[in-house]
Amino acid sequence: MKKINLFILAAAFVLYACAAPDKKAEIAELKKQRDDLSAQIIKLEKELPKDDKIAQKSAIVITADVALQTFTHYLEIQGKVDSDQNVRISPKSGGVVQDVFVERGQTVSKGTLLAQIDASTTLAGINELKKSLELSKDIFEKQQRLWDEKIGTEVQYLQAKNQKESLEKKLASLNEQYELSRIRAPFNGLVDEIYVRIGEATSPGAPAFRIINNGSLKAVAEVPESYIGSIEKGNDVKLYFPDAKKEINTKISTAADVIDPVNRTFKIEMPLTAEGKTLKANMIAYVNIKDYQKENAIVVPLNIIQRTDKGDFIYVVENGKAVMTPVELGLTYKSQVEILSGLKAGSKIITVGYQDVVDGQPVTVKTSL
User: How far is Cα 90 from Cα 111, in angstroms, rounded to an integer?
Assistant: First the structure.
């Protein structure tokens, strides 16, 4: 149309420049030429295809056959290694630390003396009572012999007996008091931390040692409350420890019935197998809990799913052409997604080259590009 207009303008300009005497005749001729050209344009436009499409080239793609398979979904959360016997020990009485008898990393048995808090006053009282008790025992034994021989009075015998028993109770009480100044291992384990030093003051409640027994290690994690209906005792679990580069299969042994009101989670515990006994407390663990499994499911790579305002779709090859096929997605795990509807077993889905095709475009299937 632009060429036609230019032609008419050019002709009009020539007509005006030449200043022909019969301008009306020339203008009439030009209008006739214009009408003839317009008629030709309309005729050609009618002969164009209705969709006005340009012939499409065949696209090269790679396909995969859809097959039924088992789809398993895992909930992925972060946990850690813990132990029921991973405790910080505090002294039962206050005072200045007199001696520390163990070193960090040392293996100890239940009852091993770890440290001594200064209890010299109590110890002096014990020594004094021991001497008094020895004298009291000698007097009692003599009075008992006399009483057995019917010599002396019963009052003397009872007084000697009472004196001895009274001192024994006082000594026992002082021994218990003295024992409070001694810090002992509550179970077999490893001395992981020593928080006290000789000469420093300590008090009840202040940490003195950390003792760990790696024989009772477990993995723990906190699960969002939205999963309370699908996570329960007995669920299969895959544990991965990134620092140790180790994976362990186990099960949930305990799932709490109470939701933490602060973070809206519930706690789960998983025992570690013998292979996991070499791990360390507080190590990070990636917890993968199997919360869904379906047999004979249709599963496709997640990356081939395309989206529009109307929904998700996949390109399928039918009769040598790419066909846009709407699909309904289920759960996704890692790089796979379950297809709930829209595909059937045996369908050929485009896995490579799907970005470069349009609906209805001819395709050539190759094994590699």
Answer: 14
Residues written for the chain: 369
* Mean pLDDT in consecutive groups of 10 residues from the start of the chain, 369 residues: 44 47 69 61 52 65 93 93 87 93 93 94 88 87 80 80 88 90 92 93 93 84 90 92 91 92 94 77 91 93 90 93 94 93 93 90 84
What's the rounded Cα separation, in Å, for the pair 314 and 307? 9
Is there a contact between 252 and 270 (Cβ–Cβ < 8 Å)?
Answer: yes
The Cα 246–Cα 311 span in angstroms is 40
Residue type, 297: A
- Tell me how far apart the alpha carbons of residues 171 and 252 are, in angstroms, rounded to a whole number: 51
Domain range 59-69+295-365, CATH class = mainly beta
- In CATH, the number for domain 87-111+186-212 is 2.40.50.100
Determine contact, residues 360/325, Cβ cutoff 8 Å: no
Q: Which of 183, 177, 188 is nearest to 206 (CA)?
A: 183
Report the alpha-carbon angle 220-222-227, nearest 5.
125
Single-letter amino acid code for the residue at 334: K
User: What is the residue extent of each domain of the chain?
Assistant: 2-47, 59-69+295-365, 76-84+213-294, 87-111+186-212, 119-180
pTM above 0.70, yes or no: no
* pLDDT score for 157: 80
Q: 152 by DSSP, 3-state: which?
A: coil
pLDDT for position 265: 95
The CATH H-level (homologous superfamily) assignment of domain 76-84+213-294 is Efflux pump adaptor protein, beta barrel domain (2.40.30.170)
Alpha-carbon span 345 to 151, nearest angstrom:
110
